[in-house]
Amino acid sequence: MQSLPAQEAAGLSALISHLYDAALDAALWPGTASRIAQALGSTSTVVKLHGDSGQVSLLECTSNLVVPERDQAWADEWHRRDLWVERSLAYGMSRIITDEDLVTPEEQVRSGFYREWLPYLGIHHLVGAVFLTAQGAVGVLGIHRPRDAGAYTDQERRQAAVVLPHLQRALRLGQHCATLAQQHSVAMQALDRFDTGALILDGACRILHVSAMAETLMRACPELVVVRGHLSLHHPMLTDKLSTLVHAAWETAHGRVGKPGSALLVPRSRRMPLVLEVAPLRPASGAFGEERPAVLVFLRDPEAPLDVARLRDLFGLTRTEAAVAVALGRGQSPENIATDMGIGIGTARTHLKRILAKTGTHRQAQLVALLTRSMTTMAS
C-alpha cells in the first residue's frame, strides 16, 4: 500500500482490519460489502461462492443488489449464468480484472446479461476476481458502479489487488471458525440430548457448561447447589469430597498423577440418590498454546423413567408389554406389577416371558440390565 495515496492507504488498512475482525466474529460480517464498495469508490459489491453443481451462495452484498422475492428465481438464474464469472475463470484465478478485460462493446450490445440483468441492478462497470476457497468452491469478488461513473482505472485495480488476498484469507479463517463453532454446537447439543445430566467444570468446580438434563436434575435436588458460579453440595463433607474428586480429575487432565475419575452419591429425600461421576477432559495442543483442561461431571438418576414408546420401537413390544417392561425396569416384581395393573399374576408372568423372548434375554435381572443400558442414551 506504500504506492497508494495516504488517505486511500488508510482506508484500505481499516477495511483489511475489518475483514479479519469479521472472520473472527460473524456478527461483524454484515455490511462488509458496503465497506469494500466505499473503500474503492463504488456503489455495490458482491462476495459469493459458485459450487461445482451450479449452486450459488451469496455470502454478502450491498443492499442495492438485494432482489425482491418475486424476482428471486430469475436472479438466481442470472447468478448461475454470470458472464463476468465465466470469463474471469478463463482469465485466471486471483487475477484482478475489469469488465473491459472480459467483454467487448460489441458483445455488450448482444448480451442479455448487459441488456437485462445489469440495468436491473443499476451497474455496468466491474473490478474484481475469482479465486479458490478452502471449501473447493469458486469465490467471487465483484465491485461495481454504473456506466456514467466511468471505467475502473489502473489505480483502482491496484486497490482491489491489495484487498483480494486479505479477503481470501479472511474467508478461510471465517470458514475455519465456523467449522469449529459448529463442532462446539454439535457437542453441546449432544450433551443436551443425553438423559444423563452433564456439567463441564474447571479445577475449582466453576461451572463452564450445564446440559439441559443437568439443570433439570439440579433443580429437583436441593443437595446440589451453585455458589457464585461454582458447583457445590449442601453437606460440607460431600462438598469436600466433590472438590477432591474434581481436583484429582483436573490434575489427570493436566497429565499429572491423579485419579482419572470417581463417583459419589448425592442423597435425595425419600428417593434413591443421584449418581455423580467425575472424569478428566484432556486439553488439545495447538500452535497458539494448549487449551485449558476441564472436568466432566455426569449426573445419573437411577429412578429415571423408561420411555414406553421407545421401548416399543426398540424391541417390538406391545403397549401392555412395554408398560410391564417399564415397571420391571423400576425394580418392581411381577406380583406388584399384577396388582398395580389390575391383572392376574399369571398374565403378568406371560407378559414377562414374551418380553424375555423379544429382547433375547433369559432372566429378569438380565432383562432389567438390558432395558436400563438400552434406554440410558438420548432424551426424546
UniProtKB/TrEMBL annotation:
Domain HTH luxR-type residues, every copy: 310-375
Q: Give the originating organism.
A: Aquincola agrisoli
Identify the InterPro entries for this entry.
Sig_transdc_resp-reg_C-effctor, Tscrpt_reg_LuxR_C, WH-like_DNA-bd_sf
Pfam family membership, one: GerE
This protein is called what? Helix-turn-helix transcriptional regulator
Q: Name one GO molecular function term.
A: DNA binding
Top-level taxon: Bacteria
Where are the coiled-coil regions? none
GO-annotated biological processes = regulation of DNA-templated transcription
